[in-house]
Design brief:
Layout lengths: L9 H7 L40 H14 L3 E5 L2 H9 L7 E5 L4 H11 L5 E5 L4 H7 L4 E7 L11 H8 L5 E5 L4 H4 L9 E5 L13 E5 L2 H14 L5 H11 L2 H21 L3 E5 L9 H7 L6 E6 L4 H10 L4 E2 L9 E3 L11 H6 L7 E4 L5 H12 L3
Parallel strand pairs: 2-3, 2-4, 4-5, 5-6, 10-11
Antiparallel strand pairs: 1-7, 6-7, 8-9, 9-12, 11-12
Helix pairs in contact: 1-2, 2-9, 3-4, 10-14
This protein binds ligand P1T.
Length: 388
C-alpha cells in the first residue's frame, strides 16, 4: 500500500488501497491476469507465481484493497460469500461449538444447520440483539461467535464491542458479517472483532455483475490457516470477477452515501404510510437500536424491510407484484433498486416457525434501495403500496 496509509480517508483507500500501476506496462488499472499457470525459467526459478489457485495478481490487488478498507492486515477473497463462510468454518474441528445470530442470511443458516452440523460441529442460534443471550450460549467448546449486523432481513443489530468484551477473555473468535454496512459505514475490526466477512457480491461490487466473498483479519495465525484453506480447498474467485469488484470499490464511498440518503427518505415514507404495519430500518428514531446504530456505524445503509398490511403472504404478494421501477429479485447492494420477498426467496431455507418466532412474517418485503433519483423511487413505492 505505497500510495495510501492506514491514516488515509476511506474514499482514498477505496480507490488506491492495494493498487499499484502494473509493473510491466504502468497500466493504472489492475490488469485481468486471465491465466491458470505461470512459466518457470528453470526448475524452481519463477517470479513468485506458480499456479493461479494459489496466486493471481488481480485477486491479490482486490484482497489488498478490501484489507485496506476494513483496516485489516490481511485480505482473502473467495468465489462467493458462502465459500468464504465455508472456509471460516473449516478452521474449526469436530466437536467445536459456534454461537450464531438467529437471524442471518438464509444460506448462512442452511450451511451451518444442514451441512456443518452433519460434520459434527455444534451451533446455537440466539437473539444476537442481546449480548447476554450470546454470553449465556457460550460453552467451554465455543470457538466462534458469528453475527450479522444489521441482520438480513430484520435489520437487527449486535453491539460488536460488547460481544468482543464477552468473547476475548474466553478466547472465542468474533466474526462479523459486514455485508449490509460495508467498511464505508462500519469497521468491525476497529471495534475488536477478529474477522470482517463480506458477500462482495453486494455493495462492494455494487453493480450486480459478479459473485464473491471475502475475509479480512489482522490475526496472523488465523490468516495463515485461512490462506492455507483458500488454496487447499480452492474456492477462489476468477480474475475477471476480482477486476469487476475492484472497479466497484472505487466508487464505494459515493454509492454508499447515495444509498443511505435515498433509503432514509423511503424509510420515513414507509413509516408514515397507512398500508404499512412495521418498518425495519436502523436510521429511524423508532428503531429499537437506533442509538447503537449511531454509535457503531457512521450511516444506516440502503436496506429496508417492512410489513405491508396485515403481514400475510397475500398482502406481501399484492405490493410485491405492483413494483415497476424496483426490480423483483434476490440479492442487494447494486446501483439498481430491488424488492425481495425473503420468505420465498433469500430465506426459503429457514423453517417457517423459526421465521415467525423472530417477527419475520410471511408477507415481509425487503428493499435494496439503489442510487436512482429518489423522486422516482418514491413514486414507485407509493404506487405499489396503493394496491393495498
Ligand atoms: O450470495 P453469496 O455471495 O454467497 O453471499 C451470501 C451472503 C452472506 N451474508 C449476507 C448478509 C448475505 O446477504 C448473503 C447473500 N444474500 C443474498 C443473496 C440476499 O439476497 O440476501
Amino acid at each position: 500500500m505505497a500510495n495510501v496509509t492506514s491514516k488515509s480517508g476511506i474514499s482514498t483507500k477505496a480507490i488506491h488501497a492495494g493498487q499499484h500501476p502494473d509493473p510491466t506496462t504502468g497500466a493504472v488499472m489492475t490488469p485481468i491476469y486471465q491465466t491458470s499457470t505461470y512459466a518457470q525459467e528453470s526448475l524452481g526459478n519463477h517470479k513468485g507465481f506458480e499456479y493461479a489457485r494459489t496466486h493471481n495478481a488481480t485477486r491479490a490487488a482486490l484482497e489488498g484493497n478490501l484489507a485496506g478498507l476494513e483496516g485489516a492486515k490481511y485480505g482473502l477473497s473467495f468465489g462467493s460469500g458462502l465459500a468464504a463462510t465455508n472456509a471460516l468454518i473449516q478452521t474449526l474441528s469436530t466437536g467445536d461449538h459456534v454461537v450464531c445470530g438467529q437471524n442471518t442470511y438464509g444460506g448462512t443458516y442452511r450451511l451451518f444447520d444442514k451441512v456443518w452440523k452433519r460434520h459434527g460441529l455444534d451451533f446455537t442460534f440466539v437473539d444476537a440483539t442481546s449480548v447476554d443471550a450470546i454470553a449465556a450460549a457460550c460453552k467451554p467448546n465455543t470457538k466462534m461467535i458469528f453475527v450479522e449486523t444489521p441482520t438480513n432481513p430484520l435489520m437487527q443489530l449486535t453491539d460488536i464491542a460488547a460481544v468482543v468484551k464477552v468473547a476475548k477473555p474466553k478466547g472465542i473468535r468474533v466474526v462479523v458479517d459486514n455485508t449490509f454496512m460495508t467498511p464505508y459505514f462500519q469497521r468491525p475490526l476497529e471495534l475488536g472483532a477478529d474477522v470482517a466477512f463480506h458477500s462482495v457480491t453486494k455493495y462492494l461490487n455494487g453493480h450486480s455483475d459478479m459473485i464473491g466473498g471475502a475475509l479480512l483479519t489482522s490475526d496472523d495465525a488465523l490468516h495463515e490457516q485461512l490462506r492455507f484453506l483458500q488454496n487447499a480447498a480452492g474456492a477462489v474467485p476468477g480474475p475477471m470477477d476480482c477486476f469487476l469488484c475492484l472497479r466497484g470499490t472505487k466508487t464505494l464511498a459515493v454509492r454508499m452515501q447515495r444509498h443511505d440518503e435515498n433509503a432514509r427518505e423511503l424509510a420515513a415514507i414507509l413509516e408514515k404510510h397507512k398500508a404499512v404495519t412495521r418498518v425495519f430500518y436502523p436510521g429511524l428514531a423508532s428503531h429499537p437500536q437506533h442509538e447503537l446504530a449511531k454509535r457503531q456505524a457512521s450511516g444506516f445503509g440502503g436496506m429496508i424491510s417492512f410489513i405491508p398490511g396485515d403481514g400475510s403472504l397475500e398482502a406481501g404478494r399484492k405490493v410485491f407484484n405492483r413494483f415497476q421501477l424496483f426490480t423483483r429479485a434476490e440479492s442487494l447492494g447494486g446501483v439498481e433498486s430491488l424488492v425481495c420477498h425473503p420468505a420465498s426467496m433469500t430465506h426459503a431455507s429457514v423453517p417457517r416457525e423459526h421465521r415467525l418466532s423472530m417477527g419475520f412474517e410471511d408477507g415481509l418485503l425487503r428493499l435494496s434501495v439503489g442510487i436512482e433519483d429518489v423522486a422516482d423511487l418514491r413514486a414507485d413505492l407509493e404506487q405499489a403500496l396503493g394496491g393495498l
